Structures are given as structure tokens and as C-alpha cells.
Amino acid sequence: MLSRFNVFTKITLLILLLLIPVISLYTYSNRESVKVIEHEIQSGTTNRLSFFASQVESTIYQLSLYGVSIGQDSSIQEYQRPDFAEQPYERVKLSVSILEKMNLYNAASKWHSEITLYFPRTLQVLSTDYYATMTYDEKEFESPFPQAWSYEGKQFTWHATDPVSAMAHPKTARLITKISFPVEHLAALLDQNKINNSGDPFLFDPAHGAIRNGSANESRIALLTKQLRHTALAESGAFRANLDDTEYFVSYIRSKSLGWYYVDYVPMQQILSPITSSRNLFYMSIAVLLVMGVAVVFALYRSVQLPLLQLVRGTKRLAAGDFSVRLPHAERNEFSVLFGRFNIMAQRIQELIENVYEEQLRRREATLKQLQSQINPHFLYNCLFYIKNMARMKNEKAVVAMSLNLGEYYRYITRSENDLATLREEVRMVTNYLNIQALRLERMRFTVDIPESMLELTVPRLTLQPIIENAILHGLEPQAEDGEIVVTGVYEGGRCMITVEDSGIGMSDEAIDLLQRKLEKPLDEHMGCGTWNVHQRMIFLFGEEAGLRYARSGSGGVKVTLTWLDNTNS
């Protein structure tokens, strides 16, 4: 397949093929780099979220542990004694001591929490919230306590009982500890986590929505929480999400204490922008190189390929025989010199061919002159013997007829002052010739029917006589019975046809085809020059459509049709 292309096409394809591995290698390298960075983004986001979760879980664990251990304090155990209610002063003093311990814990803790102690036996309540008036309500403890932190009123709450087994039946507990902290602590921690990172962390729960940091993107988190509600979330994981036509990498971890999800998301394109810019710059460079390459290829095509194609087409036309071809060479370059030499060569070849062609025409004219001037001795002897015999037989009419026709015949064929004659003159000469032959061959008849409209047309001299002579010599004379020659003419739309038919012995289809092919070949010594000369002169005078056509005659002999186009009105 490649061998069918020219050299210019092969070079162009080679250049394109060289660019393909370069682009492929860069694309593969770019994809691998993007994969590595994406993996680092995922690892960094997951690790950062895990660290944040561990901070929250550590603080919550401390709060939970305090809720369990507070019941072991001796002051609280003493405060639970039923007989202690009879000592108001000591009871107030002990309650103040207990509140001081709880406030000290809040001061030491990372988060300020609200700690409330319920004493079911004495129906007393102690709380670090000095501004709230709390009373013991038994309806609050009818349901079992959950084993995790609960969310209500923008704060998280956790209950602990003493003993621990009373979690399912709070009324049976000696002490109920309620620890709660507001969501502002989590929001502040989210803000601290966001300061040195490119993410936007928040907490998410399918039932309660999201807890955001102070500078969170509200609309984007709203879209993400909507998508999270429709996503089956595991204990931890990551996925990609399209928000506002931007791709984000989303990581999440479920809190074992709160039951919420720690969620963080980072824009992929923002981190990958340097690689994307480098990739786009590379592709732009390739595009510029391609454009420049196309410009160079176009310049080479105009400067090299087109001149080569012109030269190839010129040589093909020259090989096909069109020696008039010339190549234009407007530009001044190496091809202009080559085109100039080609034009000189084509001109010299054309001059040589024209000289040879003129020589052939002169030779044909000489042959025609020879045909016109030659006298067939055998034909003349036969005519003279016929006159002698008719004179002995005292047949004066036959002698006069033969002498007159013979004289007219030789007067016409020996005239050489003009190469052309009217069809009327040709018909008169042919009629004389047929009369001579009819006198010699008493068994021959002839008919000449040429329309009057054709008689003034000009044709080469001695056009019909060689055709009729062949019909007599090769068609009628070899047979014993009577024969006939019919000459007819037809003129239709400028197309002229003269048909010569004989009723002689005829020829086979193969012989007719061979005779037709000989008319197209150069003349040699084994061929008769009469009909060949007529065919070639008609083509030379009237064009390629003119000439002789052989066919079988309906009367059994051969039909010869002479055709040409009348160009007298053109």
C-alpha cells in the first residue's frame, strides 16, 4: 500500500508518524503524574481527616470517662446518703464542694461542657450552669439512655449512671450524670483544621444535616450534603463528586462516639492546575508545530511537489503523442531551468515529428501522382484487343463506344493539375470505367445512383475507381455467372456516404476483418496501395471519422462504404 504513494506523501506521513510516539509518551507520562498526585491528594485528605477525628474522639472520650468516674468521688457518694438531707448546712457546703470540682474539670478540659448530676434517691440536681433553675423530673428518666452521644438543641449530650447497669432503667440508678457541650466547640475545631489546609471540613448526619466551620461555603456544602444523603456511606471511605461544574475529592470517617460523619472535600483541579497548565502548554506547542509543519509542507508542495507533478504530466502527454505540451515556469528556481529544457526538448521533438509527417504526406502525394499517371498495361491491352476484335466483326458501335470511354477514362486519370475533384467528375470517370468493363465483360451490369445534392462535393481524385476496380477484379471476374455492381450515395445532416456493392464471390468475416485492419497499418510491399491510399487520404482530408468500412453485401458479395463529413459549410 505504501508503495502506491509518491515520495512527498511518504515524507509527510513519516513526519506525522514521528509525532505520534512523542504525543503518546507525553500523554502516558502526564496520566501517570496525575494518578500519583491524585493518590497523594487522597492520602493527604484521608490522613488529615483521620487526625481531626482523633482529636475530637480524644476530647469526647475524656468527657465520657469523666461522666463514668465522677460517681466514684467520695463527696458525691456522701451527698447521695438519704440521712444527709437532715443536715442542710453540711449539704449546702458539700454541694458547693462538688460544683467546684466540676468547674475545675471544665477548666482543665479542652472544651467547656455543662455537667449536671441527678440524685434519684434524694431527688436533688446539681449543675455547672448557674443561670438555669433545674428540678428533678422523673418523666425525663423513664426511657433507657442511649449508649452514644445524642444531638438536640445544637448541643451533644451523654448520660452515665451509677451503677452502669442502670442505663436501661435510669430510675434505679443512685446517680445520673449528664454531660453536654455545644456545637460551637466542633465548629471552632473545624476552623483550626481548615487554617493550614485547602479543604473545607464539616460534620454530617443524615437526620440532622451538617455542622459547618465558620467560613464554610454554604451553597457547596448544601449540594454535598444532598448528595451524601443519597449515598450509601460505610465506616470510612472516599469518592468524587461534581459540584458547580467542578470535581472534588470527598473523604469521610464515621465518629464512633457521636455517630456523625467527619467530611472533608478538596478541589482536584485546583491542585492539578500546574500539571494541567503544563499539559495544555505542551498540546498548544504541538498544535503550533503542526500548523508550522503544515505551512512548511504546503510550501514544499507548491515549490517541489507541484512542479514535479507538472513535469510528470508533461512527460505522460509527451509519451501519449501530444508534442504540443509546454510547461509554464513563472518562478525563478531550479525547476524553471528544468521546465525550460523540457519545453526545448518538446519543441524539437514536435518539429522532428512534423517534418516526418510532412515527408509522409509528400510520399503519399507522390504515390497518388503515380497512381494517376500509371497506365495498367493489362487493362489497356484487353481494351485494344477488344477494339481489334470488334473491328474484324465490323461492329463499329462497339469500337466507337470502347474508344470514347477509354479516351475519357485515360484523360481523367492522367490529369494531375489538381488533387481534388467534384463528385460529379468522379462519377463521370467511374461511369466511363464501368462502361469499358461492361463492354469487356458482357455478363456485368452496373447501377450508379448518386443524389444531385452530392455531386458538387469535393473529394480526392481517384477515390471511387480503386474501390470499383477491386469489386470487378476480385468479386465479379472469378465467378462464371452474371454479376452486378451498385453504386449509391446518401447525404444526411452533413454526413456523406457512398456505398459500392457487388454480387461477386464475396469474402468470409475473418477475411473482411483482416482487410479492415490492413487499412489502419502502414503500407508495405505485400499490400495493394489503391484502397489503402483512398482510406488514408480521406482521413487526412476529413478527419478520423472518415474512411472505408468493409462489410458483407446482401447480394452475396462485399459492400464497401466510403464515409466523410461535409465541412464546406463550417
TrEMBL record:
Matching PROSITE patterns: HAMP
Xref: PANTHER family: SENSOR HISTIDINE KINASE YPDA (PTHR34220)
Coiled coil: none
GO molecular function: protein histidine kinase activity
Residue ranges occupied by any HAMP domain in the UniProt entry: 302-354
Key word Calcium present: no
Organism: Paenibacillus aurantiacus
Enzyme Commission (EC) number: 2.7.13.3
Locations listed in the record: Cell membrane
Membrane topology note: Multi-pass membrane protein
Name of the protein: Sensor histidine kinase
A Pfam match: HATPase_c
Positions of transmembrane segments: 281-301
UniProt entry keywords in alphabetical sequence: Cell membrane, Kinase, Membrane, Phosphoprotein, Transferase, Transmembrane, Transmembrane helix
